[in-house]
Specification:
With 254 residues, the protein is an alpha/beta fold. The chain has helices at residues 2-8, 39-45, 67-76, 92-101, 121-132, 149-152, 170-174, 192-202, 224-251; strands at residues 11-17, 50-57, 80-84, 103-109, 135-139, 158-160, 179-182, 207-209.
């Protein structure tokens, strides 16, 4: 009961989770196909939380399909937004239609593929931001970001998923306003508590939290302990900002 009370005490905008709806297509990625995880499954899993919105992120196994995402955003409601994967050839009209449905960014999945290639990063990022105010999100091991760092700090809006996996070089990006997702704690092998403290010491507005449900291809599923770790690391006031205020500001949900 004490854990439930603690989780209910913080409004949560879950900035990173996946919906896998068997009504819509998925494709094998490196031989992997995910199990279903519907909007109902998601809401049930976070039933003990004060859930106040979130962001559905397209996985590598969803490639450029938008049908599942539009349906999920409609089902979950206007407090939810989406980060999708799109080819750079997408028309302005299609971007604006997705924007009206709640999409707010495009993912470059450099870790697993299924997205547009890195060669389109700069031009696509600037086009999407100018057209619809969208950001780009990178799923990448941050040890591979050295060559991209000079570009990333000039782009209008960027987020990095899962603490950059290795955590390397993140603090330099935080100094320039890049948003870091405290998500996928089971995907990293460094001291998460220390990393969170370092990030907010530089810029308390730069950190947002995501459950990464349903934790596909990970060595363990998301745990409520991941949420409690943030509170322990940052204290209640700062954790409250990370759980809700920073993400709402970044995604600007309807």
């Amino acid at each position: 009961m004490e854990r439930e009370v603690c989780m209910q005490g913080f409004k949560l905008f879950d900035s990173h989770f996946h919906i896998i709806d068997p009504r819509f297509p998925v494709v094998k990625n490196n031989g992997f196909l995910p199990q279903p995880f519907t909007c109902k499954d998601y809401s049930r899993r976070l039933g003990d939380y004060q859930l106040a919105g979130g962001t559905i992120v397209s996985g590598s196994f969803q490639a450029f399909d938008q049908s599942y995402l539009i349906a999920a955003l409609k089902e979950l409601g206007p407090a939810y937004t989406g980060v999708t994967q799109l080819p750079a050839s997408v028309t302005d009209d299609e971007v604006l239609k997705l924007n009206a449905a709640g999409v707010r960014g495009v993912r470059f999945n450099l870790k697993r593929g299924g997205s547009e290639g890195i060669g389109q990063l700069e031009s696509f990022a600037r086009r999407l931001h100018e057209l619809a105010g969208w950001h780009i999100e990178l799923y990448v091991d941050s040890t591979d970001l050295d060559d991209l760092h000079p570009l990333l700090v000039t782009l209008p809006a960027v987020s990095i998923a899962h603490l950059g996996l290795s955590g390397a070089g993140l603090l330099k990006l935080v100094e320039h306003g890049v948003i870091i997702k405290a998500s996928g704690f089971y995907r990293v092998d460094f001291d998460i508590k220390h990393a969170l403290q370092q990030i907010v010491a530089i810029n308390p507005n730069s950190l947002i939290f995501g459950t990464d449900l349903p934790s596909t291809r990970s060595n363990r599923p998301y745990s409520d302990d991941d949420f409690l770790l943030v509170i322990d690391a940052l204290g209640e006031k700062c954790a409250s900002q990370v759980f809700y205020e920073n993400a709402v500001r970044f995604y600007n949900p309807k």
